[in-house]
Amino acid sequence: QAMIIKFIGELIQALIDDPI
User: Fold this and answer.
1) C-alpha distances out from residue 8 to 13, 15, Å
2) Which sign does the torsion angle of CA 10, 13, 14, 15 carry?
3) SS3 9
4) What is the pLDDT of residue 11?
5) How far apart are CA 19 and CA 16, in angstroms?
6) SS3 19
7) Whole-angstrom Cα distance, residue 13 to residue 17?
8) Phi, psi torsion values for 19, nearest 5 degrees
9) Side-chain half-sphere exposure of 10, counting CA atoms within 13 A
10) Can you point out the beta strands (E) in the chain?
């Protein structure tokens, strides 16, 4: 599950980096 958490973390980071 650690990979899933890391994936979600990166996805959230991308959304914060490029907000729509």
Assistant:
1) 8, 11
2) positive
3) helix
4) 95
5) 6
6) coil
7) 6
8) -65, 145
9) 5
10) none
Tallying the residues shown for the chain, one arrives at 20
Residue range 1-20, pLDDT digits in tens: 799 999 999 999 999 987 66
Q: How far apart are CA 14 and CA 1, in angstroms?
A: 20
Only one residue has tokens 């599950």, namely 1
Q: Residue 1 has what pLDDT?
A: 75
